[in-house]
Design a protein that fits this description.
Helix 1 packs antiparallel against helix 2. The two termini are 28 Å apart. The chain has one domain: 2,3-Dihydroxybiphenyl 1,2-Dioxygenase, domain 1, CATH 3.10.180.10. The protein contains four helices and 15 strands. The relative contact order is 0.25. The longest helix is centred in the N-terminal third of the chain and has 13 residues. By secondary structure, the chain is of the alpha/beta class. The protein is globular and about 45 Å long. It comes from Nocardiopsis aegyptia. InterPro entries: Glyas_Bleomycin-R_OHBP_Dase (IPR029068). This is Putative glyoxalase superfamily protein PhnB.
Length: 208
């Protein structure tokens, strides 16, 4: 089964970005940083989600991100599926922090249960076939709307959603151009998917 080992974000200032992610989310080697000035405008076509255990954890992580310099895109709020909010990091990437729980079960922590890379694609069914052909295993599939792949013991899950719907969920216009400023590292090898998302062979973790 092919999995994601890490994601690499292209950022203008790796030192500043590393400080943000360490301060805001306490993320480890699953998020890597690479210096790049490649142009990108508008929605980059993906979001990163941090799934946590309870609403208090959402509040703690979103608050820490805002204090560290993130911009609020969707304020933390209850919904029919749970509780969550969306922020844009100083480097431009969009992060959603959410839980399916509607009540707290204990004191707030900054623990993260799952990290999900959600790609906004033009044709969910076609992208699903592409990724299955590259060794990924489908865990959940809802027609041409949403697909989630098995992650095994790896730290990052991959899911597919319609591009416009993902932008709406993130609270931003769907239009965008230029680089995704994201590279996926995993066991599938090096390739580019139908929507321009690049994969590279997984490499040992290193400090940014």
């Amino acid at each position: 089964m092919t999995n994601i080992d890490s994601i690499t974000l292209d950022v203008a200032d790796t030192t500043a970005a590393d400080r943000f992610y360490s301060t805001a989310f306490g993320l480890g080697p699953q998020v890597r940083l690479r210096a790049s000035q490649e142009p990108s405008a508008g929605f980059r076509g993906y979001t990163l989600s941090l799934m946590v255990s309870q609403p208090a954890d959402v509040d703690a992580l979103v608050g820490a991100a805002l204090d560290a310099g993130a911009t609020e895109l969707k304020p933390v709020a209850k919904s029919f599926w749970g509780y969550g909010g969306v922020v844009r990091a100083p480097d431009g990437s969009i992060w959603k922090v959410a839980t399916g729980a509607k009540k707290n079960s204990g004191p707030a922590t900054r623990g993260i249960d799952d990290m999900v890379l959600l790609l906004g694609v033009e044709d969910v069914a076609a992208s699903k076939r592409f990724y299955v052909d590259h060794g990924l295993t489908v865990a959940k599939s809802f027609g041409r709307v949403y697909v989630e792949f098995e992650s095994g013991e790896r730290p990052v899950k991959l899911a597919l959603y319609r591009h416009k719907a993902l932008a709406k969920d993130a609270g931003v216009p769907a239009e965008g151009s230029g680089s995704h400023r994201l590279t996926i590292g995993g066991g599938a090898g090096a390739f580019t998917d139908p929507d321009g998302f690049a994969w590279e062979a997984a490499a040992p973790a290193h400090s940014s």
